[in-house]
Amino acid sequence: MSFRTTSTTTAVDYVEDVSPGGGALPPRARYATSDAKSLSLNGSWRFRLSQTADAEDDSFAADGYDAGDWAEVTVPGHWVLQGDGAFGSPIYTNHLYPFPVDPPRVPTENPTGDHLRVFDLPADWPDLSEGGAVLRFDGVESCARVWLNGTDLGEFKGSRLPHEFAVGHLLKPAGNVLAVRVHQWSAGSYLEDQDQWWLPGIFRDVTLLHRPAGCALDFFVHASYDHVTGEGTLRVDSDVDGRVTVPVLDIDVATGTTVTVPVRPWTAETPHLYDGVLATEGERVALRIGFRTVELADGLIKVNGKPVLFKGVNRHEWHPERGRALDLETMREDVLLMKRHNVNAVRTSHYPPHPAFLDLCDEYGLWVVDECDLETHGFVEQAWRDNPVDDDRWTPALLDRAARMVERDKNHPSVVIWSLGNEAGTGRGLTAMAEWIHARDTSRLVHYEGDIDCRDTDVYSRMYASHEEVERIGRGLDGGTHKRRRLPFILCEYAHAMGNGPGGLADYQRIFEAHERVQGGFVWEWIDHGIRHPELGYAYGGDFGEELHDGNFVCDGLVLPDRTPSPGLVEFKKVIEPVALEGSGDGTVRVTNKQDFADLSALAFTWAFEADGETVAEGGLAVPALGAGESADVKLPPLPAAVPAGAETAWTVRAVLAEDTPWAAAGHVVAWGQVPVAARAVPALAATGGPVADGRIVTLGPATFDARTGALRAIGPVEVTGLRLDVWRATTDNDDGAPWQSDIRHGELWRKLGLHRMRHRLDAVELGGDALTVRTRVAPAAWEVGLSTVYRWTSDGDRMRLTVSVTPEGDWTVPLPRLGVRFGLAEADAVTWFGGGPGEAYPDSRMASAVGRWQSTVDRMQTPYVRPQENGARADVRWAELGGLRIEGDPEFWFTARRWTSEQLDAARHRTDLTPGDTVWVNLDHGQHGLGSQSCGPGPLPQYFLDVAPAEFSFVFSATR
Fold first, then answer.
1. 719 in catalytic set
2. Where are the beta strands (DSSP E) in 281-354?
3. Which pLDDT score is estimated for 10?
4. Which one of 235, 237, 553, 922 is most buried, counting C-beta atoms within 10 A?
5. Mean pLDDT of the chain
């Protein structure tokens, strides 16, 4: 970086200094509340943006500086998300640094935001002669220099870590001037390449803390649990002598004293916390104590003596308007959604979260892998040359980041594993971090996925390993170092939830549950990082003119940007549900408690008996309070008497919350299962009469056809257009896959083959005795492969039966996206169907699809993925009604209806590109190709391929108006 040398230049060498900064206090434990005064400095700040780090001197920090003509921004916040573009734009890259890689140098063009806040001390603030004060920043990206009342306090890096400064000697009762200069790029940026938007600013809380004489400084709550005796052991080590009280346990001891008493342990399933107080001479600090013991024993991660199975998610912090500036209620919403969808663990990818999030994890119950603010992924482009984690000059910065994470978060029972960071290669700096953490905290394990031989870590971790490989690891056939073979295995990332997907969740879960060594994983990721945009709906990479970007790869979450659960999250909830309900043919249901600790006493069980998808009887089901891992066969009631003859019948058994909990109300469905009783009758149609030609029209029963082409025009009063074979779907992110992947990507192959532009050749229209037969060949231009397709229509006078026969021709080397028929209806809105629902499903993502009778509208059947793509299919549909038609399938079919064609959906890049047309396009599919998670993982398993093979399927149509 070159700087101007005029008299107005301020020293900015610290920006490119590899050190973590200077002037900040040593890291310490964070606590939510104490009786010491505090003052939030959040709110409106004066703001000035410069395009280089040295454009302005530091005179703005002086008392009396006139910033009246400056703009204003909200703190916490990111300046690029404020000002309607006047302060620059967000940048998204997955791993490429958006600046030349020349560590520790950064570009001369370095957006720099000067922030100014003038504040008075409140009237009840203690006298300035009593004690001191600390100024705390919980998060600033990426480098900051701080002044108070004209005095330079220091500078720091480590965007998602706390930094505190002693300021008591500088305060005055009124007119305090707090000045903060924030640089978007710094040496620290090389350590923060974390697959997210680059968003500069003061994005977490700024707080002034009074520090009374004799106040608490750092303290460490050690609270272990002995699962054999049922006793907890508590010791609170404190830098300042004091007393620890836990009234409900009759504990009142000096700090540093060990006490053992009977307790209820803390787990993610039973998050029991004890309220206590650390009282020093000058301060009373509230404690929330959870007794639990984490250990590596018998080659397994154990808590309180039992192995745990992580049913987790990776969570970036995100809000579609505020970026990473989250408030408490948004964080609470995340935790509540996780609990309600059976998630039990969070990896804080790829940085420590806002500290209040961990308070919520303690309170509601989530296992946490707390990850350090470290990723240097961009160095992979130069074979990890000059990687900071293998350069001793950077090691102090790495150790600083590790210490600020551990010291801040060490008193949270929810944190069971420390993670060194993500995708930072390997090197001496990571070893130093692991050694420091192991020495500082022996009560938790250490994780880092990049440590492939587990030299420094306690867990063998991988990301996006295939089902086959995970199976081999579970069976101990994966090889590796002797140490690694003796360690537990987790998938720190799997099931890339980008767009429609992920598929294959249930197949992974079966492997997790079959092998004790495989202790679960963390789906990538929790939320789509879409930015709310007035023209685009939600913006993603490239929408702000970035010269380098990775498109919608930033939208890969289980919840949409507004936190609407995606079908993927609903599927995940079903796959990981803590109670298995499996039927048998003898009128019983096997109930299995799949939890690790809790019994079933918190749940009530209900049954419903359904005929053709409608409930005809229901009631409660007595289930014993099974302990963790236990099963019982429970007798179902006798079959109800009043069941329509010939109806398809089934039991639905549900496990629901028996009482209100902090995270959901009584009656919330935790798990469910269906037990078929009587199968449905296949729709039958006896042909009567035959086709009659009358000029350009052929009539058959209630239907009319074009005499020349055999195309269906109407069934009774319902006009139908364009009915023909359809094999194309708007490719999903997982169909298209990631360009760096070496394996087969079907979306790419489908386009190469031309499946999106199939030609339909008419070979014959035949009027037989009782049938109208249309023979066609469906094939792509430029290739010899094709599908010989025959449509055979018959009628019983009121209804129409279409039988479609498909015979492949040529050497098909790829599966099909879909196989079925598509047609258009002039009018359709309300939709009723009997089959899988209520949400969408696909072959490898259908566990959450419950057979029933469902109602919706065409618009509500769409899933509004940030980048439009195939969506909205309902599985196992017996019949559907819409637009004046009833359609019955033989066999069951996949059903989709939308106000645009697949081609229009495929061409759209944002939601707002889709304009509803006058026609509703309906797909009735005999088959769909699986989803997989190949946007950053394996594609669909072979059993979910829609291989090209001879097929025959039928539909019975009738008019309902």
1. no
2. 284-289, 294-297, 300-303, 306-307, 310-314, 345-347
3. 61
4. 922
5. 97
Angle value at C-alpha 444, between 329 and 511, nearest 5 degrees: 80
Pairing of strands 242-246, 274-280: antiparallel
Is the pLDDT at 6 greater than 70, yes or no? Answer: no
- With residue 844 as reference, give the H or E element that holds it: none
What's residue 7's pLDDT? 31
Q: Which residue has the tokens 């650390």?
A: 278
Q: Are the beta carbons of 256 and 238 closer than 8 angstroms? A: yes
Residue 460 and residue 445: Cα distance in Å, rounded?
11
With vertex at residue 250, the alpha carbon angle to CA 249 and CA 251, rounded to the nearest 5 degrees, is: 90
DSSP string across 432-488: HHHHHHHHH-TTSEEE-TT-TT-SS-SSEEEES--HHHHHHHHTT-S---HHHHTS-
At 746, which helix (H) or strand (E)?
A: helix 746-753
Residue 929 token pair: 């190709």
Q: Of the listed 16, 164, 375, 423, which one is catalytic?
A: 423
Question: Percentage of the chain with pLDDT > 70?
Answer: 99
Beta bridge partners of 21: 156
Identify whether 502 is preceded by a cis peptide bond (ω within 30 of 0): yes
Task: Report the candidate in 161, 564, 544 with the shortest Cα–Cα distance to residue 372.
Answer: 161
Report the DSSP beta bridge partners of residue 208: 39, 135
Which tokens belong to 116? 């100014």
Place of tokens 């009567």: 688
108 neighbors 100 (Cβ within 8 angstroms): no
Structure confidence at residue 740 (pLDDT): 82
At residue 575, what is the residue type? Answer: V
Chain position carrying tokens 């495989």: 518
Distance CA 800, CA 418 (A): 64
Contact (CB, 8 A) for 289 and 264: no
Q: How far apart are CA 883 and CA 879, in angstroms?
A: 14
Structure tokens, 811: 């050497």
**Band of the pLDDT at 1, cuts 50, 70, 90?**
very low
The C-alpha atoms of residue 365 and residue 374 are separated, in whole angstroms, by 26
489-494 and 518-523 strand pairing: parallel
Question: Stretch 688-715: mean pLDDT, rounded?
Answer: 96
Cβ atoms within 10 Å of 620's Cβ, excluding its own: 10
Bridge partners, residue 697, by sequence: 694, 706
Mark residue 713 as left, alpha or beta (left: phi above 0; alpha: psi -120 to 50; beta: remaining): alpha
What are the DSSP calls for 640-675, one per residue?
PS---TT--EEEEEEEEESS--SSS-TT-EEEEEEE
**952 classed as catalytic:** no
For helices 505-514 and 567-575, angle between their N-to-C axes, nearest 10 degrees: 20
Rounded-to-integer distance, Cα 752 and Cα 813, Å? 12
One of 471, 493, 525, 892 is an active-site residue; which one? Answer: 493
Orientation of helix 395-409 relative to helix 428-440, angle to 10°:
30
- Residues 858 and 956: their CA atoms lie apart, in Å, by 21
Given a cut of 80, whether residue 326 has pLDDT beyond it is yes
Could you report the per-residue pLDDT of 165-202, keeping only the tens digit for each?
999 999 999 999 999 999 999 999 999 999 999 999 99
Q: What is the dihedral of CA 896, 898, 903, 906, to 10 degrees?
A: -90
Q: Which of 227, 126, 97 is nearest to 628 (CA)?
A: 227
Is 649 a residue whose pLDDT tops 70? Answer: yes
Strands (E), 734-873: 758-767, 772-780, 786-795, 800-809, 818-825, 830-837, 850-857
Phi, psi (degrees; rounded to nearest 5) at 840: -70, 160
- Angle, helices 355-364/328-340, rounded to nearest 10 degrees: 40
Residue 98's nearest CA partner among 467, 486, 550 is 550
Question: How many C-beta atoms surround the C-beta of residue 662 within 10 A?
Answer: 11
Query: Each residue of 917-950: pLDDT tens digit?
Result: 999 999 999 999 999 999 999 999 999 999 999 9
Please say if the pLDDT value at position 65 is more than 60.
yes
Q: How far is the C-alpha of 533 from the C-alpha of 555, rounded, in Å? A: 14
The DSSP 8-state label assigned to residue 84 in this structure reads G
Task: Copy the structure tokens of residue 925.
Answer: 């599919």
